[in-house]
């Protein structure tokens, strides 16, 4: 039934009871994530409490069997795929919101709570948790933390790492640890909780999270600004980020994306628009009009083609339509898509976009850039036909050049998707040998036998 | 001249040239910090560049000689005191601002730059670096990072850890490392840069920092709200923090502090005021009045005695006078002061203040609480006469109870001062054994021979 050592299987079946699965058909459901990669785990554990996780990690450590934490498998890098076999620990049953404490602006949750469920529970308290990945409706808080998920709101409110106060976790040693406190300040020992965020399950399994919450702004308003070219839009981004009203979203589309939205998606955009910014402000009824004015002033400048202000929620939806038309439009160009999320300093966005378009020409593949401009975090979409081996190879070759370009511009490989399997071969280009050696030493401190999510994040 | 091994002395004299000091009188100047503790280093190094720091750490490691990083010695915990001898590395000559990049909202600095110098250089660009410890005029950025310094602005803009993008450092192995990138988002490997912040020189020596900057709000306005008692003020703090206009400062004074400011400092405060909040908003001319209104609404409520709004900078200074009268007034009460900076969840502030006043009665010592209420980070000042051994012993005993109280309320030992020597004996009460063991393992990964700032932060 399972390739696991029989003693381990028996031990874990006793620990997990109904939450221990070895049937191959059930295991298959935990073999994949949104990276299109797949590898069958030897077993699946569905713990309901921390003690089971401790017992499981200890038992697996004794047998040197891999342990792979899993939220809902929405990540795009293969970080949840059990490439070395072992036990997938799915946190779907540890999905309780343990406390919401509005006076302390924090919530305590188990890792399997869906991001969207949490937001719904927080809304009556006038609070929210800032990370808003596209997957928010069906990705877990634990997964968001493991990958340091971001989203459009990160430009104002930060990504997952910026919104965690404390974590309970089980290290690769099998020891339960508690890092941080439910306070917004702390200078008491090493900050292990932020180190765990983004570590993709390679250091510890998160079993409880105390999250930093933010008051929900009662209102928001969107602007759509069209620019002649990317350089003009990028200058506007720098102006927008240099004045005191930080936009709550600042999304970018390059010329190809604008053309696609217009020609394929049917968006109402003038042909002279070579770049688009979606800009949002949030606040209360009194301050919001002034915030919108400040953003409009900053958005204006040389190369601005048009700017539209959405007075109400319906108008906001219309303005966002161009952005939302983009993803379906991309699919009409080619069946295959590599979506990477490199990040560069904001001032280098024009060079990134220009460089990517040069690569599109060199490799004869459409490449479309859009994303979170206020953080310099662009989604670079390489489009190709997977049935055409030549195109696939060209896409891979172009991708390597995209990473090299982002690094040359002082940026890095990933802003919010993480490394996983997909980008680990590139990590030595982003991180120098002594720093990489230190990351390995840190990994060994948390997980001396290397049982946690082997084959991910750090290259061999 | 120096107790160092002769070979090491010769090697480091060659590496550092004029920046190598072994004269006992010169060494004495680097023996202390603001903790009133003192220990003579065996030598002082004043490097001018990273290569010297690498050579120094490698040489000291070969001889197992301690290396103690030092900014300007303003910290209050003894973290910069060379209790185990060795080489103090003062960064006073690595004090260049290497780059200010307004378009990327970042600055690159050497660790010896003074916080105040940096702010002055940023101001013409309309930017600032948020950490604002009281020592800002004469403390260094490197020291601020090493201790995770905060200050009143942290309530809106975060402490040092929240405002760093990348660090260059030299680990205890002698290896130069580079962690993070000059981007506000990153999901590329382990977040070692935030781990280094607050590690008090026990993991690595910071030799370069890329700092996250924030646009300087053009205007600010202060409110002073007086409450009947601490409970009423604390409820107001919770209301203030639960609405969308985050105050740029939210400072608290307890009844003893208010009475002192009035009776000794001559501040104009009514006798029925049992607690005081200083509330500031910042923004531009358009949004600021609305922000102030929102804060006034939130500050109002049961137990409010009076609220004053400073229309201009002169009025602002008058409102702050009560707070500023406090420190000199404290000195009139007793010559000795232990100032600790525990932190608790905001909702537990009343229990902390009540508990501290019960300890003041039990130990027959004045204890005055004030500080950064929006973060729950209160400065608890125990006043005593050091010439009176009984008072000194009572103050120490009361201090231990203050820490126990903060921990029992779900808080921790320090919000912004750090652990250093002063609080390391208490660390096992704040951090459980497996987590402390993991911190030691992380320390060993960075500093396998334990040469960096021995005797600090982690207990033996």
From TrEMBL, chains A, B:
Please give the Pfam families that the UniProt record associates with this protein: FAD-oxidase_C, FAD_binding_4
* SUPFAM superfamilies for the chain: FAD-binding/transporter-associated domain-like (SSF56176), FAD-linked oxidases, C-terminal domain (SSF55103)
Gene3D superfamilies in the cross-refs: 3.30.465.10, 3.30.70.2740, Vanillyl-alcohol Oxidase, Chain A, domain 4 (1.10.45.10)
The UniProt keywords, alphabetically, are: FAD, Flavoprotein, Oxidoreductase
Please indicate which superkingdom the organism of origin belongs to: Bacteria
InterPro entries in the cross-refs: FAD-bd_oxidored_4_C (IPR004113), FAD-bd_PCMH (IPR016166), FAD-bd_PCMH-like_sf (IPR036318), FAD-bd_PCMH_sub2 (IPR016169), FAD-linked_Oxase-like_C (IPR016164), FAD-linked_OxidoTrans_Type4 (IPR051914), Oxid_FAD_bind_N (IPR006094), Vanillyl_alc_oxidase_C-sub2 (IPR016171)
Domain spans labelled FAD-binding PCMH-type:
37-216
List the cofactors.
FAD
Gene Ontology molecular functions: FAD binding; oxidoreductase activity
UniProt similarity note: Belongs to the FAD-binding oxidoreductase/transferase type 4 family.
What is the protein name stated in its UniProt record? D-lactate dehydrogenase
* Organism for this UniProt entry: Vulcaniibacterium tengchongense
